[in-house]
Structures are given as structure tokens and as C-alpha cells.
Amino acid sequence: MARPHSLRLTVAALVLLGVAVAILASLGRWQLHRADERRATLAAIEAGRARAPVRLAGDTPVGELAAWRPAQARGTWLPGLNVLLENRNQGGRPGYWLATPLLLEPASRRAVLVLRGWLPRPLDGSPPVLPATPAGVQQVAGELATRVPRLFELWSFGQPRAALPAALPADGLTPAVQNLDLDAYAQATGLALLPAVLMQTRGDDALVRDWPQPSTDYDKNLGYAMQWFSFAAIAAIAWLVVAVRAWRRAGRPARRSQS
């Protein structure tokens, strides 16, 4: 007959191995789900960039403002409504994105917010020097985004995040915020903004226009999924080995008693 402590250890091992199988298999399924998400993101990017460029106007239908679609806009810059988006790194260097509205229709105050490019943060902590903004009607080309790309906001109780002024233009320096909501910006400026953002891809200034895009390397997730499923298979084999050995040990006393 199996000793009591041996039986308890066997049951504990079977329970732990069973839990390990369930957890490892669920991690594999999660990686497959992440791979599907990244595959869908890649398809959306390719589909958007494959569409014909759209010319932005005050009456452009929302259905035409697909993310990653090439777009062109003709209007007048409003540099007095500039906003800097801080903590945007480029090539390992800290800096800002410069956002400026382009006025499409003066009468209706219809405009589109343009992410014009990246500029470095001065090492001495002083405000960045913004590039000159061309006057007059300008032609701007870029790709569309449904909103300003966001960063995770981390701050302590003693260091609250910078907030967008209630009304723009504001006296003094160009406001710098970590994230910019289109509705809040429209309320602060009084502009009727298109429900999209234009990420400028060409320009005659020194701004860097190497815009980030979501990770689409779904093959990496598939590789991770195979690893987790392999670990789950190993744990399942171990469970079977422990169970078979326990069954054989339980059968030995019965055979001995019969003899």
C-alpha cells in the first residue's frame, strides 16, 4: 500500500502540473491572439496606403478619412495655435512633435490639425526654437491618423502633468503637453476640426518626419506561441508520467496480496 505522504505528494504534483498546463496553454493562445491583432493592423496600414490620396476640405466625408491614407490639404497655417507634444524620442534623442492647425475654410473656421515633425529638446532645458512657419496659402501632404498618437502618462503626486490651456492662443510660451485630445484642442481654439490628423511627410524645414507606426511583427508572436505550447506539452507529458507511475505503485500491493 502506498504511504500517505507519498500519495499527498503525488496528488500535489498532479495538481501543479495540471495548473501549469492550463497556464502555459493560455499564454500560447494569448500570443496567437496578439499575432492576429498585429496581422490585422498590418492589413489596415497596407489598405490605407494603397488608397488614392484624398484632398482634405471642410466637407470631406468622415468615411474618406481612413487611417494611413495619403492626403493633401491646401490652407493657411495658424502658428499662434502651435502645441508641442513632449517626450517624443527620435533616434534615442528626446524632443517634441510640433502640431499646427491648417485653416482650410476661413469663413467656417474649418481646419485640420497637422503634425508637422519632430525637433530636439535643447540640452540646457530652454524652450525649443520653432522653425519659421510659411505665410500664405500652403500645400501640405502626409498620411492620415484618426487621432494624435498617445503616450502613457506617468507622473507623481508632486509633479502633475501639463494641461492644455483653456483658451488658445495663450500668453507666453508655446504650450507643451504629453497627449493632445482633438475635442479639447478644438474647444480651446474655437476651430471646427476635421476628425482626423494629418502627419506631414514632406516639408522645406529642418523638422524630422519619420513617424512611428504600430508593431506588425506577428511572426514573433507566433514563435512565442510555439514556445508556450511546447512548454505546455512538456508539462502534460510530465503529468502523464506521474499519473502512470502512481497507478503502477497503487497496483503492486493488490498483485502481491493475490499471490
TrEMBL record:
<comment type="similarity">
    <text>Belongs to the SURF1 family.</text>
</comment>
<keyword id="KW-0472">Membrane</keyword>
<keyword id="KW-0812">Transmembrane</keyword>
<feature type="transmembrane region" description="Helical">
    <location>
        <begin position="228"/>
        <end position="247"/>
    </location>
</feature>
<dbReference type="InterPro" id="IPR045214">
    <property type="entry name" value="Surf1/Surf4"/>
</dbReference>
<dbReference type="GO" id="GO:0005886">
    <property type="term" value="C:plasma membrane"/>
</dbReference>
<dbReference type="InterPro" id="IPR002994">
    <property type="entry name" value="Surf1/Shy1"/>
</dbReference>
<keyword id="KW-1133">Transmembrane helix</keyword>
<dbReference type="Pfam" id="PF02104">
    <property type="entry name" value="SURF1"/>
</dbReference>
<protein>
    <recommendedName>
        <fullName>SURF1-like protein</fullName>
    </recommendedName>
</protein>
<keyword id="KW-1003">Cell membrane</keyword>
